[in-house]
Amino acid sequence: MRWFFLFLLALNVFYYVWHQQQAPLRPKEVTPLSLFHSEQKNIRLLSESAEKPQRRQMEERPVTALTSTCVYLGSFSAEDRTQQLVQRLLSLDVQASVQTVDAAAGVDYWVYLPPLASRQASLWQLRELQARKIDSYIITEGDLTDGISLGIFQRKDSADSVVERLKGAGYDALVRELARSQHDYWAEVSPESGRLVDDSLVRQLAPDFPDLQKQIMPCKSVASPQ
Question: What band does 58 get if pLDDT is binned at 50, 70 and 90?
Answer without folding.
Answer: very low
